[in-house]
Write a structure and sequence with these properties.
The protein is an all-alpha fold. The protein has helices spanning about 5-25, 75-85, 85-95, 100-110, 115-120, 140-155, 165-180, 185-195, 200-210, 220-230, 235-245, 255-265, 270-285, 295-305, 315-320, 345-355, and strands at about 335, 340. It has one domain.
């Protein structure tokens, strides 16, 4: 029976221990699960919708078309030419303050010109006395680059550069020679520039031999001249304007021919006949007169001077090709009872007769 008190005491002790344990748990901080935050994924930097200043614009697709420039208001002369109004055209061309550039601008706006014609007679073209060498890099046609070189060198009858530069003109001709080998026109005109620059006679002789060794003679003016001459026949008003303001007197051939003749006399230069043939060859092959634009009259004339016995005088030569020479046109304005008035009839009849006989 002594066992019972012992068991009772053991139960009390265990109960006390259990109570103490429960008290420790209730006073301890509650257990919580530790959550480790996940690292945010690395996202690519967001692109701004505004264009960056240092980025290049997107490439234009094949279908891209630049916005058309705002058309300029046509001048009264352009309106008259496009309408074929002969009386209004003649009246406007009589005004004292009308400039050649203004006339050419109206003509070009009427005839849908080629790039070569625009580079020659346009607002920033190489013709006229306003030509500035800085615009040379914008020229794309070899003919206008050739004209620009002669403008710089003082060998163009289409005007002169604001700042002549014979040395630069020679360099430009040398550059054109590399692009178009065999064209005798380049050393022919370079010869005149080199004489201006004081080259020695043996150096001039070498350049003359280069011209004689050429395979053709092309100033590129035939193409430009032909387009301008053909524009005359679009209507009587254009014919009237071009007859008064356009002259196919582009280059000064005399200095080149003069140097060659002097080399023939004192240096026994034997290439004169060869250069003469190259210069007259376009005329010899033409089937129509110079006025048609098939060949350039001044080139024939100065080429013939190098070998007169082999070629006919220009007037006789051109007449055989149907050239009528200069034919004065009938007047447009008449006077009656002290009053001046426009009568386009006679001039229009003259125009259509000439156009039909071409």
């Amino acid at each position: 029976m002594k066992t019972l008190p012992i068991l009772f005491l053991l139960a009390v002790f265990l109960t006390f221990v259990a109570w103490i344990s429960l008290q420790g748990v209730s006073q301890a901080e509650p257990l919580t699960s530790t959550v480790v935050p996940l690292a945010a994924p690395e996202l690519p930097p967001q692109r701004s919708s505004a264009p960056r200043k240092d980025t290049k614009p997107p490439k234009k697709s094949a279908a891209y078309r630049a916005p058309a420039p705002t058309p300029l208001k046509p001048s009264p002369l352009q309106i008259a030419l496009q309408a074929g109004d002969l009386c209004e055209t003649a009246k406007l061309l009589e005004e004292e303050n009308i400039a050649m550039k203004m006339v050419y601008a109206a003509i070009l706006a009427t005839i849908s010109p080629s790039a070569a014609l625009v580079e020659t007679f346009g607002a920033n073209g190489v013709s006229g006395n306003e030509f500035v060498f800085e615009g040379m890099q914008k020229l794309t046609h070899p003919g206008t680059r050739f004209i620009a070189a002669l403008q710089l060198g003082g060998l163009s009858n289409m005007g002169s550069a604001k700042t002549p530069d014979v040395k630069k003109a020679r360099e430009l001709l040398l550059a054109l020679e590399k692009e178009n080998p065999g064209n005798a026109a380049y050393p022919y005109f370079r010869l005149a520039l080199e004489e201006k620059l004081g080259f020695k006679r043996e150096e001039l002789l070498a350049t003359a031999n280069e011209a004689a060794d050429g395979s053709f003679f092309d100033t590129h003016f035939d193409e430009i001249n032909r387009e301008m001459l053909n524009a005359r026949w679009l209507n009587p008003a254009l014919h009237y304007a071009l007859r008064r303001y356009y002259y196919a007197d582009s280059f000064n051939f005399y200095p080149g021919t003069d140097v060659i003749r002097s080399l023939q006399a004192d240096q026994n230069f034997g290439g004169s006949a060869r250069i003469a043939k190259l210069m007259t060859d376009p005329g010899m092959k033409a089937s129509r007169p110079a006025d048609s634009g098939e060949y350039y009259n001044l080139q024939y004339i100065y080429g013939r001077l190098l070998d007169k016995n082999s070629y006919k005088d220009f007037d006789e030569f051109d007449k055989e090709k149907g050239g009528a020479g200069y034919t004065p046109e009938p007047p447009i304005f008449a006077e009656q009872a002290g009053q001046r008035f426009c009568d386009p009839g006679p001039y229009e009849a003259f125009f259509y007769e000439r156009r039909n006989s071409r």
